[in-house]
Each structure stands twice: as C-alpha cells, then as structure tokens.
C-alpha cells in the first residue's frame, strides 16, 4: 500500500519550464554574437548566399536586432521555428520560405518576449504564454498537432535503435 501511495504521489502535476520561441531565438543570438570574428564572417557569407532568391523573406542580417515587429526571418529564428513548427530539415525550409503564416509566428513570438520581459507576477507570465499559444494555434493550424507529434517522438526515440540516417524517419 505504501508503494502504491508513493507511486501515485509521483504522478502529481508539477510546474515545468518549457522553452519558447523567444528563448530558442535568444540562445541563437548569443551564440552568433559570441562567435570568433572569422567564424561569424563565414556564417554571414553563407547566410548571404542562402538568401539568394529569398531576400524579402530572409533578413539581410544574421541577427535582426531592430526593435518592434519582425518584417523578415533572420538566421537566429530558425532554431525556434524548427522547435515548434517543423519536423524535418525539409519541412523547416518549406515553412520558412513558403508558408504565408511564419512571419505572423515571428510577430507573435516577439510580442510574447516583450510581455514576458514586463511580467512581474506568475499569473502575468502564464497569461502571456497561454495567449501566445492561442495566437500561434490560429497562425499555424498544425501547431498543436505538431507539438503532440514531437512529444511522441521524444518519448519513443530513446527506445528505438536508429542510426543518424534513420532518425529523420521516426
């Protein structure tokens, strides 16, 4: 009976911190800023070449530091988009370059970052995240479905023996 009670007590909900789009983007911004000058110059050159044909969608800078609402997708946003809005490299590329809603996702996320920065109470933080989640579901109609799929993959992946070539197939 004591064992059952102990097991059940482990099932109690506990607060969990999840990474949000702004956190993914901020980490990438810091990583780019901390690169050695030669490495950063090389990355900037590669980014410039990758932008060819997509100059209006992709920002000229690796990291767009302009305040306000994003008008383009910078390099720093890619890990954030990959985390919640794509399942593969091909899907990420299609999402960034072709979907009409990804700029809205970037705008929602920029607003969320500002809201989180000014939140002084836990309820303000929760409301900002929940509000952004609702907006993101309206912007990206596959947002909730994709998140459920990603959670399933994360739960199954440790139990599936796959190599690097097989991982994208999960």
Give the arrangement of secondary structure elements:
Layout (H helix, E strand, L loop, with lengths): L1 H8 L11 H13 L3 H14 L27 H8 L3 H10 L3 H17 L3 H18 L3 H14 L14
Helix pairs in contact: 2-4, 4-5, 6-7
Describe this structure in words.
The chain is an all-alpha fold and 170 residues long. It has one domain. Helix content is 60%, strand content 0%. It contains eight helices and no strands. α6 runs antiparallel to α7. The protein is globular, with a radius of gyration of 19 Å. The protein starts with a helix and ends in a 14-residue tail after the last helix. 17% of the residues are buried.
Structural class: mainly alpha
| Residue share in helix | 55-70%
- Count the domains: 1
Give the overall shape.
globular
Brief account:
With 170 residues, this protein is an all-alpha fold. It has helices at residues 2-9, 21-33, 37-50, 78-85, 89-98, 102-118, 122-139, 143-156.
Give the key terms:
mainly alpha, 170 residues, 60% helix, 8 helices
